[in-house]
């Protein structure tokens, strides 16, 4: 067995960050009827568009439950790799591996604990048994080391620049529904030892009403070491207004692991966006899952994008702001093509493009 317990023992092993070159991107296929409306058919089309866009840039693997395997195979382009990989839902960023690289280029991964964003105290669905096995299965598929971490953590709760700096939020990582009794110092020790990071920047909160309890990947992310993009709201009556300014104050007063002051780019917030009557009516309502009701506000953000080797795949969410957001991202990624994908169907499920993807760094075989 390749499974190892505890923190990675090799000096220099670390999270590569998402800007470094990739060998592949991993996704999961949506089908859960209490998350995705109308049997997930509209969401499946959105996932196909995301996978197709990313596949211009790198290999895409889509994990599918057996009962949807043939359907996914027919809907996805032939060059997208469809693999049988059972899951409870389709949020690969959170249930999939956090990849690490050894100094010699070999891959490894972290297997965090997962409790569906809060377990029985605020979690989004039950059970989550299939989700918990995904990292083990991918480690076996790739033949890489898997380090079992002792804390509950989802991939969307952290952003890493690849040079030793990590972004996260107190709202999420210090939430008692994840790791009760674990304080900030103890969590920092786990992150340092497990991911090889040297500096952790704590933002107070994530986006307003984000059902993940404030994942940082919906609010702020690295675009390159030393530079971040922050979701921004100018409406003083919007609760997101104060959240953005809290984050900006922390970011502008912080330095990264290399001692650089952070350059902060603002990305306008779409909307605000709300679930419409017809959108809510198509979703199964179960006591074991998070309710999605007409009029509920969604935590829409353009920051929730995927950086590929040659493309950046961004969500299209608001016709009045989509082009402005696209232009800003093109300026931040001049060497990549910006691909906009209609993503309201993904947002209706509670996340967006970054949430449904997980990059696999390029590796060198020993």
From TrEMBL:
It is an enzyme of class 3 (hydrolase). Keywords: Hydrolase. It holds the Pfam family PAD_porph. It comes from the Bacteria. Belongs to the agmatine deiminase family. The active site is at residue 355. It catalyses: agmatine + H2O = N-carbamoylputrescine + NH4(+). Its EC number is 3.5.3.12. The keyword Amino-acid biosynthesis does not apply. This is Putative agmatine deiminase.
């Amino acid at each position: 067995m390749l499974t190892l317990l505890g923190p990675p023992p090799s000096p220099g092993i670390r999270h590569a960050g998402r800007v470094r070159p990739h060998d592949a991107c991993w996704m999961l296929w949506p089908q859960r009827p209490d998350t995705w409306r109308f049997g997930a058919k509209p969401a499946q089309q959105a996932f196909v568009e995301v996978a197709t866009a990313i596949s211009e840039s790198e290999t895409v693997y889509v994990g599918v439950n057996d009962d949807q395997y043939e359907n996914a195979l027919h809907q996805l382009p032939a060059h997208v790799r469809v693999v049988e990989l059972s899951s409870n839902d389709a949020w690969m960023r959170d249930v999939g591996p956090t990849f690490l690289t050894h100094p010699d280029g070999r891959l490894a991964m972290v297997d965090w604990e997962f409790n569906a964003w809060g377990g029985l105290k605020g979690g989004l669905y039950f059970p989550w048994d299939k989700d918990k096995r995904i990292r083990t299965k991918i480690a076996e598929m790739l033949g890489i080391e898997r380090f079992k971490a002792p804390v509950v953590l989802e991939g969307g709760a952290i952003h890493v620049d690849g040079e030793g700096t990590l972004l996260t939020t107190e709202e999420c990582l210090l939430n008692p529904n994840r790791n009760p009794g674990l304080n900030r110092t103890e969590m920092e020790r786990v992150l340092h030892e497990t991911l090889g990071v040297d500096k952790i920047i704590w933002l107070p909160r994530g986006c307003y009403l984000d059902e993940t309890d404030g994942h940082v990947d919906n609010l702020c992310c690295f675009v390159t070491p030393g530079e971040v993009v922050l979701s921004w709201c100018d409406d003083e009556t919007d609760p997101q207004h104060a959240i953005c300014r809290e984050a900006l104050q922390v970011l502008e007063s912080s330095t990264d692991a290399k001692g650089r002051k952070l350059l902060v780019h603002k990305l306008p917030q779409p909307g605000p966006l709300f679930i419409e009557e017809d959108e809510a009516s198509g979703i199964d309502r179960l006591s074991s899952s998070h309710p999605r009701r007409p009029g509920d506000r969604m935590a829409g953000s353009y920051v929730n994008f995927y950086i590929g080797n040659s493309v950046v795949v961004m969500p299209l969410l608001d016709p009045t702001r989509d082009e402005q957001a696209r232009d800003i991202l093109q300026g931040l990624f001049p060497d990549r093509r910006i691909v906009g994908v209609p993503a309201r169907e993904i947002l209706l499920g509670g996340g967006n493009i970054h949430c449904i993807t997980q990059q696999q760094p390029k590796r060198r075989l020993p």
